[in-house]
Amino acid sequence: MIQIENLTKKFGNAISLDAINLKIQSGDCVALMGPNGAGKTTLIRLILGYYHPTNGQVLINGKNPIKERVDVLQNISFVPQLPPPIKLSLEELIAYVCKSTQVQKEKILHFAQEMELDIEPNLKKSFFKLSGGMKQKMLIAISLARRGEIIIYDEPTANLDPKARDNFHRLLQTQNHPNISLFVTHRIDEMRDIVNRQIYMDLGKIINDEKI
Ligand SMILES: Nc1ncnc2c1ncn2[C@@H]1O[C@H](COP(=O)(O)OP(=O)(O)O)[C@@H](O)[C@H]1O
Ligand SMILES: [Mg+2]
To answer: Phi/psi at 38 (nearest 5 deg)?
Structure first.
């Protein structure tokens, strides 16, 4: 369970999250929506223990994501809004993921193929040098292979063409659902069949939260 209590995040004097209360329970598959600057990515970064709260707290299965970061992150598969500048080659990245998370290489290759990412000719290429769409496909393939207890996607299809978006949604629908899924999305029409809860944020607050 993700438990968020009175969570506030300020950068200088600007309030990015304003005293948010939220419980995401096992079985929840959430579309998190709202305009740019609403605070969606900030909320996710706090859930991942990437930022310290200005006030309030986040607990993941009762654990503090800053103090017990390694434990907490073990259960979370995360695809960020902007791919990180990883210098490793695809080969090295896959080896690293397999070693650090006990995922099978074959699974990553399988999902890469499902996402129509041609890995073989790019194995020696730095992740950093791939196109935006290829990076996103690679991160999605890793996240699907890993399938943590909690999956969090921050606008995972923003860099994808329509075909790749279709592939991604098809894969989500055919997978067993993880305990908790959280998708930041601007495309609720695409996610309606997948999610069962819709949360709308604006100006650092939750404006609407409903089961669908
Ligand atoms: N690291 C940061 N430093 C300063 N301001 C930030 C930082 N991260 C986010 N913000 C500000 O917080 C607000 C919410 O941003 P963000 O969480 O990225 O919104 P969203 O993901 O909903 O588009 C914005 O006004 C943004 O400028
Ligand atoms: Mg964002």
So the answer is: -70, -25
